[in-house]
Structures are given as structure tokens and as C-alpha cells.
């Protein structure tokens, strides 16, 4: 994944453009012939293939019809829309405050039945205690140089959202790296409370908590933190942006990566032992 949202968005646009170009070539059509079949000037075809102009949904459907690839149209439409909207600049979101971000995610959480969550850096928000959340969001406020630090209010809002793990109709499969347990993002008391809460939350019927030991032979490398909401969309947390993936084929990639990460984790008594070890290390 490219380093910045802007370069990633451009790469996503280019991926659509290259696929459309490949479809034209596979159909044996020239740029001029494709344009004639679609009813537009050939320069438009060239601009689309060079990612200078983003194709509309109708453009893609006409293109796929002209190349005999109607079955690929919908996936390409979703991919193209994704290229324009998947990267939402974090700065634009936090202008309304960190609490606003927490509140905005409430409905998505309520609408989701099956959560699959992987974190390589911090305890996931739905399993955070207020003290830990306040520390994490305080760091975020500093990183993004906010004029107003509402991290305390945001932490309370995050705690309110996290109560969903006690509600009927939801299932949570959470996988974290063991390093998360030892990453001291809060003071000792807050860390102890957070780790203690993981022992409690991991025992809830709706929660499956797995920890990937640092000593395990890896079959998949650590990934950026991501949440899979049913099979509808994936949110990925980067430094400068939040990525929202809605293209079915990309969601499937994240689901596959999650299963590989999940298979390396330990659960039950073994996971609790790693958490207890981290608590003892605080002393």
C-alpha cells in the first residue's frame, strides 16, 4: 500500500484505468474503435486509460459492453468509486473533533452483526477502558495538532460505543499482536486496568479474543489495524487517513488476511496467560 492517501488514491485510479485498457486490448479494439462503440471522442478513451479522467459508472458499463465484458462492469464501477472516495483525509474528520468521529461510527457498529478486528499496535476501541482510550485519543490529538483537545469526551463516547459487545445480535472476533499488551501508551494504572479488562472481555460469550505470540513462527506478516464489518466494508487506520474499502474483491483480500492472522493466534487459557504475563511485567 502506498505511503500516502493521495498516492494510494492515484494508484487505485490507475488500477481501474489499466484494467479498462486491458479489456480493450483483449477485445482486439483500437482506441478509436472503442470510442466509436461507446459513442464518444477517442481522446476520452485515451484520457481514461491514462488515469487523467475518472470514468463514470455509465462510461464503465459502455466500455464493458463494447469489449464483451459485461460481467466485470459492476466490480469495476465499485472499484472506480472506491478510488475516488476510499481515502478520507483524517484532518478533515478531526476538524469536527475526536468525539465526532466516535459518534459517527455508532450506527455502523449497530448495523453490524459480525465484527472481525485485527490490531498490531493498540487495544481495539471496542475493548478499551476509559483511561486507556483517553491516553490513546490524547496522543491522536497531539499528532494531529488539534485546536481543541476533546480527547476526554471522545474517550467517554468510545466507551459508550463499546457497550455494544454486551448487546444481543453481535459477534466479535478480535485478534491482536502480543506486542499490543506491552505497548505502554498509558500510565501504569491505566495499563493494568486495560489489561485486566481484556481478561474480562475475552470471557464474554460474544467475544473471541486471540493473541498472536511474539515467539510464534509467522505465516503472515503484521498488518495495519483494520476492522471488517460483516462483508460490507473494511476500515483501515493509517497515520494521515482512514481507508474505507467497499470493493468486494478487496474485502475478500482482507478477510483472507484476517483468517491467516487468526490462525496464528492463541485463545482461551493460552491467551489469558499472555495477558497475565503483560500485567506482571508492569510491576
TrEMBL record:
InterPro entries: Cro/C1-type_HTH, DUF5753, Lambda_DNA-bd_dom_sf. It comes from the Bacteria. Residues 20-60 form the HTH cro/C1-type domain. This is Helix-turn-helix transcriptional regulator. It comes from Streptomyces prunicolor. SUPFAM superfamilies: lambda repressor-like DNA-binding domains (SSF47413).
